[in-house]
Write a structure and sequence with these properties.
Layout lengths: L13 E4 L13 E2 L4 E2 L3 E2 L6 E7 L3 E8 L5 E3 L11 E2 L5 E5 L5 E8 L4 E10 L1
Antiparallel strand pairs: 1-11, 2-11, 3-10, 4-10, 5-9, 5-11, 6-7, 6-8, 6-10
């Protein structure tokens, strides 16, 4: 056999779609009629960088939450100011890079107006 080996990525990059919490429904394409929607948790442990991408047809607030060892979901704030990622502008691609040691993460979106349709929701990890 002729085999060749070369340097590669120590960790294989992944791109995963976000799903609506506790369902098999993709977050992308989801219609929001009232309240907030939260994605199913994404296993991000072992990856050095994770980038969330999101787009919807209404403005609103986005929170990225991480699961603590105590079993609590807490808003991720990389600069320790206590502020989350902020507000989302309608029809814009929102991207947010997470660093640090994390196990599970999820996205919560609260539109400013209803109905709202999510068109993109994914996480890229490397």
């Amino acid at each position: 056999y002729r085999l060749r080996f070369s340097d590669g990525h120590e960790i294989t990059p992944m791109q995963l779609p976000l799903y609506d919490e506790d369902t098999n429904n993709l977050f992308a394409g989801l219609g929001i009629a009232a309240g907030s929607e939260t994605s199913h948790p994404v296993p991000v442990f072992g990856f050095n960088m994770r980038t969330f991408h999101f787009r919807a047809d209404q403005a609103g607030d986005i929170d990225i939450e991480i699961l603590t060892e105590a079993g609590n979901w807490r808003i991720y704030s990389p600069d320790a100011t206590g502020h989350t990622e902020g507000t989302y502008a309608a029809n814009e691609l929102w991207s947010f890079v997470m660093t640090g040691d994390l196990v599970l993460a999820r996205l919560t979106f609260t539109p400013d107006a209803y109905p709202c349709t999510v068109s993109d929701a994914e996480v890229v990890m490397r």
